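Now read these lines:
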Amino acid sequence: MIHLFSFHSSLKVNNDSATDFEFFILLAKLKSMSGAARALDLTPPAATKRLGIIEKRLDARLVNRTTRSVSLTPEGETYLRYATQIVGQVREMEEAISGARSDPQGLLRVNATLGFGRTTIAPLVSEFAKRFPHVEIQFEVTDRPVDLVEGAFDMAIRFGELPDSRLSARRIMSNRRFLCASPKYLERFGTPERVENLLHHRCIIHRQNDDAYGVWRYIVNDHIEALKVKGALSSNDGDIVLRWALDGHGILIRSEWDLAKYLQSGRLKLVLPNTVIPSADLFVYYPRQRNQTARARAFIDFLVDHLQAPFVPVDVNEHVPERRKRTGRKVTHLGQAASDTDPETR
């Protein structure tokens, strides 16, 4: 069973099985008594009564209530911390028992980056669900990284560096990045010969997370250099900026997995192919302290098996101008080697 859902729907639990701990964790996440009541299929008065029973038993006020929201008192923060730990330990106990079975089953919560998750991971989730019908998958795609611990996710599939020291990671796929442009753009505006020439070109900017706007980084002698570029077009969506590059609007930095087929067809060409752009390898991240379940291990292995070679790797030397090839110097791309270290050891 697969669920593609919003944040609020992911928090819904069965009222009959919801413990006081789960109720309070839900209330703290939603910061709304009415929201918690809806998620538990309760009336607001019933949810208020349930909180009152907990507070009376502890002889402490756990939340401050207004007409619009709730906030935790110091006692409420303490209760939430212990409740989260207890619920997590119970879940690990259940998973340890169910994980002993040969056939993976149970709930698997997965987060992925928006574009890649939609185009590449979602079809794999479909195939995995066919192979393991007893695993219930909740798959959420977001444009920004999520807190796996707070969001109760089993794993996230994302490009780049380890975002949180509380996480462990396994690399699924190497993913170099290149400068590229359409033949139409290069015929009209010329091909840059040096990195500094990019300052005089139209660059398409892909805004990602909190990266500095228009700052492109490249590697020289194992050191990262930065260049501030300009362009008339920018977007936070990778598919959009790629379309603009194909339409001839400028030079773009794009991942190998998304670029390879357009290089093969000739719709895009590498620009400054011997310039090394920091790579953004694909990793699956998971909470460090949590023992992996059989279903989580099965899903990660499935991803590794199906994402090892989804495209023909780009041969940089095929895109080096002839006059440079005659120097006898073979161009090598260091982006992949620069990220071979497992994120856990960075």
